[in-house]
Amino acid sequence: MPDYAFFVISGEREKLYMAFITAIGYVSAGSKIYMFYTMDGLNGITKKGLEEIKLENVKPLKYYVDNLIELGENDIELAACEFGMKVKGIGEEDLIQGVKVSGVSEFAYKSSTAKSILVF
Q: Taking the domains of the chain in order of start, what are their residue ranges?
């Protein structure tokens, strides 16, 4: 079970960046994390989104996603909300490698023992 659960619902670039940067910090400190993406937040874990989402003066979002996955290999789990995917017209083939499709009930279960839930 994760130490921290992330609920990523916003598609705002700043929030997507901060979700991944914060996750990198937690994993670097030895924590296990579960990141659940839904609605506009799903853009942060789609192939197209990672190519398009950029902030000025920093590396592309893809850099931070790849960094997190490499750093946290066994300590992170990325999940895409099945309902949110249907609403946004996103298919499993649109997701980056390693993302699991799941429901809100799984988020509820996995976050039930987390030290805290971070919402982005």
A: 4-119
> What CA–CA distance (Å, rounded) separates 46 from 32?
22
Order across the sheet with 76-81: list the strands: 99-102, 76-81, 33-37, 4-8, 116-119
pTM over 0.85: yes
CATH C-level class of 4-119:
alpha beta
**Integer angstrom CA distances of residue 35 from 16, 17, 58:** 11, 13, 22
pLDDT digit of tens for each residue in the chain (120 aa)? 999 999 999 999 999 999 999 999 999 999 999 999 999 999 999 999 999 999 999 999 999 999 999 998 899 999 999 999 999 999 999 999 999 999 999 999 999 999 999 999
